[in-house]
Amino acid sequence: MRICRRLRLELGEDVFSSWFGCLELDALSDDDAYLSVPTKFLKSWIQSHYTDKILQALTTEFPMIKRVSVNLRSSTRLTPPRAIGNPIDTAPCGDADLVKGRNVSPSSSPIGQSAGTLPSSKKPASIEACEAEILSGSPLDRRLIFSNFLVGSSNQLAHAAARRIASAAPGDPLLFNPLYLHASVGLGKTHLLQAAAHAATSAKHKVIYLTAERFMYGFVAALKAQTAIAFKERLRAIDLLVIDDIQFLQGKSIQQEFCHTLNALIDSRRQIVIAADRPPGDLESLDERVRSRLAGGLCIEIGGLDEALRVKILEARIAAAKQVHPTFEVPAAVVAYVASVIQTNGRDLDGAVNRNRYYNPTFPMCV
Fold first, then answer.
1. Do 155 and 269 fall into the same domain?
2. pLDDT in tens, 98-126
3. How many structural domains are present in the chain?
4. Does residue 318 lie in a domain region?
5. What's the sign of the alpha-carbon dihedral 129, 130, 131, 134?
6. Which of 156, 153, 165, 157 is CA-nearest to residue 195?
């Protein structure tokens, strides 16, 4: 219909597909246009951002319309409601253009889509299982918590910011959103993100932790399972969204959806924490709008491990190894030497301990 084409041209295909794909024109009566959407989030978002544009597009075809009403429809509705006012003719808002001045039947056809089979109140078991898997998030490692995160001069600021977010009470003002952490491999980004997710979950916040790969998989799988609305609704109804390794986010449509999710969460004052291996401006594979949104919060770099922190990490790993091999001993001089030689990251320090723990546990540690 011409109204759909006008909205597409004005707002763009991406915005139209994201927010108007499930919007249905139920009826036109007297001065009012009655629309409906399947979720509370869509209703609130469209009322806040697009009511005026919808009214403007409608009045080009129906000059008598003065008001737009967006309602929440039931997913189990099998028969259309009766229109308010004069009797109206059937005119699905999918294929044919609307004739100017003609009332529209509440045919429950999505704007921009042709009328099809009405949704069933019962989903197939396979789709329910797929939806549950998609919305479950990535698993958290129970070992990655704040109490065993070792703090030094290179990660002190990132640690304080992550703890501040995780301990925030509902309704507290958001000092920075999103929180963006970046560092090379093995410097503690994932540990901090998962620790924040653990702490926020313990505080009864709604939290989803995702890797970029899991986000991509979830979005694509949701489209295939026809549960994209549920996927978006779940992400946008949480208190804290944590995404790791954002540099691996690929695909134009997925990046666009991610940008919409960022905008929705930030506008509704929900917290976002993101980690990557470089600053937002250096993520050349990401859309410019995504990079701009990421740079608009607090960006913190986790620097290389200083020698004092490397010693603390080695001592902690040796103490953990001694719980398994009580005879495993490492002289302080050897610890200091290894800390001075291995300057790359924490994983290489773990490797030095593990090599001695498993290959030669009775002799002092060597590099």
1. yes
2. 333 334 444 444 444 433 333 444 444 54
3. 3
4. yes
5. positive
6. 165
